[in-house]
Amino acid sequence: MSKILEVRELNAWFGATKAVKGIDLSFEGNTVTAIIGPSGCGKSTFIRCLNRLHEEVPDASAEGHVLLNGDDIYGKDIDPVAIRRKIGMVFQKPNPFPSLSVFDNVAIGLRLAGLRRGAMLKEIVEKSLHLSALWDEVKDKLNAPGTSLSGGQQQRLCIARALAVEPSVLLMDEPTSALDPISTAKIEELVTELKKTVTIVIVTHNMQQAARISDSTAFFLLGDMVEYGETSKIFTAPKDARTERYITGRFG
Amino acid sequence: MGLAVLLLAIAFFLYRAAAPALHKLGWSFVYSSVWDPVQDIFGALPVVYGTVVSSFIAIIIATPLSIGVALFLTEIAPRRVGRVVGFLIEMLAAIPSVVYGLWGIFVLAPWLRTTVEPGLKTALGFLPFFQGPAYGVGMMAAGIILAIMITPTISSISREIFSAIPQPQREAALGLGATRWEMMRLAVLRSSKRGIAGAVILGLGRALGETMAVTMVIGNRHEISASFFAPSTTMASIIANEYSEATSDIHIAALVEVGLLLFAVTFIINSLARLFVSRSGNR
After folding, report:
1. Residue B254 in contact with residue B175, Cβ under 8 Å?
2. What phi and psi, each to the nearest 5 degrees, are found at residue A206?
3. Thinking of the domain B45-235+268-281, which architecture would CATH place it in?
């Protein structure tokens, strides 16, 4: 399998505090990688570096190399705006734009990218809503505000919004932490389905979730990556004592 | 409750004191342009026109300026710079309006007369607003002074509204490949439309009632002229100028009726503002 995203020596700071310490990690195409670890271990900061969103926080900075299909997104002449179209993101809390309809929420990324043709826009929006398993639930209320949907639907709307611009990687930052168990199950099912089209990196607090949906897992602690491997191995035979302690629930 | 009674009491007092003029002049008070206290002829149209147009000029200038300031302070400037600049702008609201008036007479009006108005005449002289002699003192000076005076109001309310927008909204936009400016339009401005409208209407309410600074720079001529260079007058300034000299009962009553008109206009506009702002808060 090919490596679609390669992280080399990635460091990130909030002011003078180092939150991510020299991470090396690669992601295979069409897989799901889970990042687990206790709160404050730098896992969210880490994936926010992968689409250069971390640096938008005041005083935050990042340094290192992240190769997307071989090209460094931290290279000199790289525009972060273009990177964020290729590497999509879904956030902790569903955040559809309250002033936009369901349809426009999905279409907005394409409009930002300059697509104006109505027929094509419609087609891609419909396709994205199908991909995020939301179409049947919203096909009759495409003009309703995005925020009128339920929490779980809103999160799938955000997934559709990210998918509409056809990113090659989808970053998910604890996407189910604000959702009920049924909505969570739907999103998990969706993730497994989506990996056919996109590579997924998911940060999660929920170890069962990581075990259920991911192919490989990375365990972070205090900004370091302690262990990385196939999910089945990490959860059954971890090499590091700290990983074992974490996944058996003895701290974190 | 007590304040509501006070409000009604003020309205009632204005009505009672204006009654002689209301009865004698009838509706001609609102549509007539002649204001001649010697002959007891009172037409308020020019003062209503002056108030509305000077406030309108102020809004046209202050709205984009204030939104720009608020965006700069919340979205662009580093936090420390934002705090200092924000403080300075809010201090503009603390300057007494008579000081604005002095500045208007000694700095703004001469500058308008020698530089701005001739320039506008050359560039946009085909429009009726920018024709005629450049006086300096006049409608345009009043509009600009008002714009400066209401910018702190509009920008600080807009700033509150912008900083109440959750950070994830901004990140959603950035995460989709929006540039900084697109992010501001999509995540910040779009969802603040009603709130900004409310802020602008509050600013308008202030502009309509402002007296001292306007009186000092507007020229106080009871005449309707299409040109912004020409002197004009407003409801508030005619009351301030004439009340102490009014001798006949009908003259005093007419001035009070102007006050009643001003009271009604600002009351309606402020109520609208509150309606807008509370609705935008619910979204």
Report:
1. no
2. -100, 110
3. Orthogonal Bundle (1.10)
A168 touches chain B (CB under 8 A): no
Instruction: Look at residue B190 and give its three-state secondary structure.
Output: helix
Chain A residues with CB-CB distance to B172 below 8 A = 91, 95-97, 158, 161
- Residue A99 near chain B (CB below 8 Å): yes
Whether B283 shows a pLDDT value over 80: the answer reads no
Q: Is the pLDDT of residue B129 over 80?
A: yes
Beta bridge pairs of residue A106:
none
Spatial contact of A200 and A194, defined as CB atoms under 8 Å apart = yes
Nearest-angstrom CA–CA distance, A201 and A47: 8
pLDDT single digits (tens) A176-213: 998 999 999 999 999 999 999 999 999 998 899 999 99
| A3-247 classified as CATH 3.20.20.30 | no
Complex-level ipTM = 0.89
The predicted model scores a pTM of: 0.85
Q: Which residues of A touch B168 (CB under 8 A)?
A: 91-93, 95
> In this complex, which of A88, A97, A100 lies closest to B175 when CB atoms are compared?
A88
What type of residue sits at position A103? F
In the predicted structure, residue A250 carries a pLDDT above the cut 80: no
